[in-house]
Fold these 2 entries.
Entry 1:
Amino acid sequence: MKTILTILFIAIATTTHAQQIYSTGTVQGVNHTYIVKTRDFPSNNPLVSIANTQNKTSGQRMKSNRLDYVDPVLLGVKINNTALNNIFKEEIEPSVLQRLAANPQNYVGLIINFKQDGSVLDVTFSTQQTSTITPRIFEKIEDRIKSEITATFNQDKIPGIGAPAYTTFNFITKSYIIYFYKLKQVQ
Amino acid sequence: MNCFFKPRLWLIVLFLTIFSCKKDSSTSTHLHTDNAGVEIRNWLALQKDSTHVGELTSHIKWAEALTLAGDSNLYYYAVPVTGSDENYSPKKICRFLIVEAQSDKSQGYLLEVLASAKEFDQHKEELIKGFANINMSFSYEGDLSKFTISGDFIESTSYVSGKLKSYSKIYKKTSSAPKAILSSGKQVNDVCTDWWLNVNYTDGTATSTYLGSTCTCGGVIASRDKIGILSVKTLCGGGGGPGSPGDGGDSPGCIHQGSSIKNNKLILAAGDPCTVEPPKVKFNLCNGLSVQQIADFQSTYNYLTTGNCLQQALTVKIEGKEINVCIGAMSDPSAIAQSTPGNLVWNQNLVFYAGTLQEELFHQVQFDYYGTNASHANVEFEAALLRDMTDHAYDALHLASSEDQDRYRAFLDRITANNTGYPKTMSDIMPTPQDEASYFSLVNAYNNQYGTGSSHHGVVDNSLKPTALLEVTNLSKCP
């Protein structure tokens, strides 16, 4: 009986790990806690956002102290997409990556907020509620993004201000998306 | 008949010439010698353009050839050339064939002198050899223009009150064109040359006018039209005409890639230079654009014409339009451009960005469908949406909350099937009433990311659907 119960427990635990469903609340990584919020808009694949509780820009919007409008091209945020993709490829187990890539709908969205020096300030993930990527993996990915990814910005000076647009903002946002089936294609 | 040398005025002219000769002889710069005719004939004999040399020779008044001495052993051998002189009363144009010789080097050109009879009679020598003088010794009002013997414009100077006002020169910019595909299926490498008239004024300002383009897709014939602007015709094989190199006798037909442009009207001949296509869009460039800005604008527009399927579709959609392109100051210093129907004003201190130019040209399409009083928020969101679809980006709501950005990303991924296609019908964008509400909710989010005082903040129209965007996607060859 003990053996059967043990097997059942392992089976349930394994299944739970593989089919983890994120819901509103908090989840624990190794060193960080993440806030999970369900996204309240129509979708065939309900989404959640996953953000480190230590994020400094939570609830804040990107704002300029000089400009009330800016064309994205004037910010000109550029990052190394290949390096970012590689982080995901390297941190997600091949078998998990394989399963994720099997469905073109599977993705992870990123909103990366950068400091004016180009270093990463905060990262917020969004993904399906049924994502099989664990909080620990998100934590590893976040740590690597913060240490390995930097941004460059458009240095054109804004007329009337005499400085590049990005220097007038509290932080600079880049929205990015990782489709796993595309990651597999470039492997 | 040529200019002021009417037969019945010969005696007067002769008298004036002799008088002038005597007066100038003290400066040792003026010579009358038969040697001028010999020098000019020798120079003509070395020219390979036998057709134009023959035609020119028949219009030369050899008896009036003269030699003028310049600085540093430079000699001007000049002879009047008859022709259909334009009358710009009270001024006229006189033509001379001039050979400049110094040591063993010589160069020849046709010089057109726009001057009054009095100016010409009294200062002929100074006008002939005074090209590009900063100051004339008299109050000259007119132009001096140089042409090749085949009639192509080289350069000109313009004078007001005896002072140099402007200097004009045609310059060319060579660029690689897309590979042309001949009807045989063969590809030929083409190089196109864009021709510009650059005018520099002595007050420091400058203008530049695009004249046309020639492409090395077969023989090229260039000729000058009657007011002296370059006219370009390009032939591209076939019909016994010049053949494209390596086309194996294929007959892709004639090309008219560029033509003379007047009054600053710019014709951008886009696309395959081996395809017979009429000019697509007329851009009227304001005088305030610098040479760099014009070149920047042209290359940016050309980038769109050869860009991805949506960018190409947009440039096709605006075919037939005439758009004034000017630079100016913006009420909002960070605004890159402002559009009204048929007009585009670009921030004078910013370069032409492809994505923004795409948005501004899309506004011209929107004007056709929504008029000029449509909700600013709706049309700007739609333009930003088209741009994100083009760039596979998610920038439209970059100042919004992370939730709104996620929502926008999910919406964009849905209508583009994760960046693999583009919506062609309204039901692709809003298949259900819930999706329609979602679309306008995003327009609201777009609007609300700007403060109420922002030039980009307005009132959302919950009935204005993105019709113009679908007009572009439907015209495209995109999936």
Note: Chain B is about 30% helix and 25% strand.
Entry 2:
Amino acid sequence: MDIKVLGPGCPKCHETERLVKEVVAELSVDASVDKITDLMKIAGYGVFGTPAVVVDGEVKSVGKIPKKEEIKTWIEG
Amino acid sequence: MSQDCCTSDGNVMILACSGGSNVGQLSNQAAVELTREGFGKMYCLAGIGGLLSGFVRSAKDVQALVAIDGCDVGCAKAILEHTEVPLKNYVVITELGIEKNKNLELKSKDILKVKEAIRACCAGTCQRQETVKASIGRCCG
């Protein structure tokens, strides 16, 4: 599984990354979590704001810190 | 990096039909000018219509959104309905008394009128907004 956290580096983005990594660890899933900070790359996803979370190419959340339960749902499919 | 680099909670997403008539292009020009004036941020309705996940999810998650249709064909509204994006604020330009035609030379007074209607709608002072909210209430039960 490929997870990307989009955000240039503000506290909300860091918190989102932390939560995603926490959930991945809790579920013991084989997933890579990458932080994308490059604004041009972020723009390529078409998101209106950050932080945003992308799971296997699909944007799941934009402009807010997602709840852990939401993240679990995305990962567990 | 700045603490304010994330999305502002007050950033209004502006979606214009940008259609091929005077009123369609008025929706586009009003969206462009309102973005320049800092009222909100024009966003790509075509990306939503194309079902690109970044665009659809952004429209669903944004706190403040206004859709602008040139006429009552309602293309912008239809796209949002198909993608299940809540229609929070909605302006139809022909309902402002501007007649639809194929003249793409826009009048300044019409652009101003549309911008004022959009601002009023987002401020919760237009009749159309109440109609839309009532409609959504019925649809969603």
Note: The helical segments of chain A are 11-27, 39-43, 68-76.
